[in-house]
Amino acid sequence: MLWLPLQIAAANTYVEGVDYVKIAGIPESKTPVVREFFSYNCGHCYRQDPFFEQTAHLLGDDVSFERTPVGAGRTSWILSQEAYYLAQKFSVTKQVHGNIFSRIHEKEGAFTRPEQLKDFFVSQGLDGKDVEAAMNSADAKLALMNYDTQAQLAEIRGVPSIVVNGKYLVKNPGKTPEDLVKLVKYLNSLPE
């Protein structure tokens, strides 16, 4: 009988308010979903990207790993949101995600003008007219508004931030991707 209390104690190793907080949330079309709120301009996001990439790999097909870029009302951050939109629109996210971080943090710095964003995507093999048309589209404006709405609903106060299933904001992701995966599995096990 002694093993039962130990088993229960092991199952309850996460504490609401310490490891995660429940938020009003964002509607997710599918669960389970882990959503990273980030900015290409954020140095911490840049350094943490391998951590989150490894976490996504460990989650496998059981959990959808999504990203939402945060603009925070800053021109260069909004251009980075647009970079993410363009990567998604042209289905080149895997190809350019690391390149955008590298361009900003190791090479030329943040995007400060739309022309720089266009030139970057042309350098990645896309057609300039297609990129420009996408940048000026109503879809682009709606996508950026959607990103901002998601960040507001998820109560994002800084990046990178992780939200699980649209309702749990992770406060303590742990020291390793495996730690974060365990927390995600725990949050996925909580009753609706």
From TrEMBL:
Source organism, top-level taxon: Bacteria
Localization in the cell: Periplasm
Keywords in alphabetical order: Disulfide bond, Periplasm, Redox-active center, Signal
Disulfide bridges in this chain: C42-C45
A Pfam family it matches: DSBA
Species: Shewanella fidelis
Family designation: Belongs to the thioredoxin family. DsbA subfamily.
PROSITE patterns referenced in this protein's UniProt entry, alphabetically: THIOREDOXIN_2 (PS51352)
Protein name: Thiol:disulfide interchange protein
GO cellular component: a single term: periplasmic space
